[in-house]
Amino acid sequence: MTLGTSPEIDSAIHTVGLSKAYGAVRAVDDLSMTVPRGEIFGFLGPNGAGKTTSVKLLTGLSNPTSGKAWLLGKPVGDVPTRGRIGYLPELFRYQGWMSAVEVLRLHCELADVPMGRRKTEIEQALVLVGLADRANDKVITFSKGMQQRLGLGVSLLGKPDLVFLDEPTSALDPVGRKEVRDIIVELRSRGITVFLNSHLLSEVQQVCDRVAVIDRGRVVAQGTMAELLGAGEIRIQVTDLDEAGMQAIAPFGQAFRSDEWLTVVGVAPERVPDLIAELVRLGARVHAVERGRQTLEERFIQLLERP
Ligand SMILES: Nc1ncnc2c1ncn2[C@@H]1O[C@H](COP(=O)(O)OP(=O)(O)O)[C@@H](O)[C@H]1O
Ligand SMILES: [Mg+2]
Q1: Superfamily of domain 7-224
Q2: Which atom of ligand 1 is least distant from the CA of 50?
Q3: Gap between the Cα atoms of 195 and 13, Å rounded
Q4: Does the Cβ of 48 fall within 6 Å of ligand 1?
Q5: Is 203 a residue whose pLDDT tops 90?
């Protein structure tokens, strides 16, 4: 095997200019991204940003208006590759009168899991999602969290190498969220690539290796969590700094303001004293200086700030 041949071949997901228009609405607009294999990739954006549409394009449920995408080295739509993909839709509901094991059996049929493997796969899925002791109970008796875990179990049938999870924790309470996060981390430890759609930033921050932030169909940032949050960042509590002052410190890094706190991203450590000296020279009053990382939430709000 030759390594590093090309992103189409090497990545779990690679897209080039992927777009989907619904009439005048550009649901996905020129999406280009690369998801490495074996990672948890967070696909973040506010409601209506285009996350679900992107997943539908990638899973082949919807056709792009333009652009291309590859999954596990093959163009989207490649039939053998479909068997290596798992998908948990955003809104799903199983028949309340079916038991967990019956739901899993049905989906083994739908996913064409070979007959001889079904029993073992169902048992393994139930164990992984923590429903082994509820296998024969009806879905109607399940909490939302249990239904979501059952959905995860379904998406894992056929032992996929790549799973798409669309807002798997949005409807859950904190305990349910933690359970789902733990399962996601377990999937990665088994070598599965997880593509996680979410508008819940703290969720993503806790489990993802890499993220893309999407807004109005376009990627506004992508990278590792460290890249996105800025490893070299400084927070300064400052008063008496006017707009001209903000502009004067631009050469030091990307500066953002939230009340009295000024965050400057990408400042070289040896330039921090110069930055403070400059602020003082500009007439600002410095009350505190700390090294910090932004939370993903702060970064997200900056990225989505409308001009
Ligand atoms: N089938 C459809 N027909 C028309 N517009 C759609 C359809 N699906 C999604 N949209 C529109 O595309 C945009 C992106 O939607 P969606 O991908 O569901 O966003 P998200 O999952 O990030 O909340 C929204 O403006 C939505 O109204
Ligand atoms: Mg959605």
Answers
A1: P-loop containing nucleotide triphosphate hydrolases (3.40.50.300)
A2: 17
A3: 9
A4: yes
A5: no
pTM for the complete prediction? 0.81
Cβ contacts of residue 40 below 8 Å, gap of 6+?
184, 185, 187, 188, 193, 194, 196, 207, 208, 209, 210
Of ligand 1's listed atoms, the one at least distance from the Cα of 53 is 17
Q: Is the minimum distance from the CB of 61 to ligand 1 under 6 angstroms?
A: no
Q: Which residues have a Cβ under 8 Å from the Cβ of 257 and sit 6 or more positions away?
A: 246, 263
Say yes or no: CB of residue 155 within 6 Å of ligand 1: no
Q: Where are the domain boundaries for CATH 3.30.70 in the chain? A: 230-304
Smallest-distance ligand from the CA of 54: 1
Residue 56 near ligand 1, beta carbon < 6 Å:
no
**What is the model's pLDDT at position 231?**
54
Give the model confidence (pLDDT) of 95-146 as tens digits.
Answer: 999 999 999 999 999 888 999 999 999 999 999 999 999 999 999 999 989 9
Under CATH, which architecture does the 230-304 domain have? Answer: 2-Layer Sandwich (3.30)
For tokens 């009168």, the residue is 97
Residues of the chain with CATH 3.40.50.300: 7-224
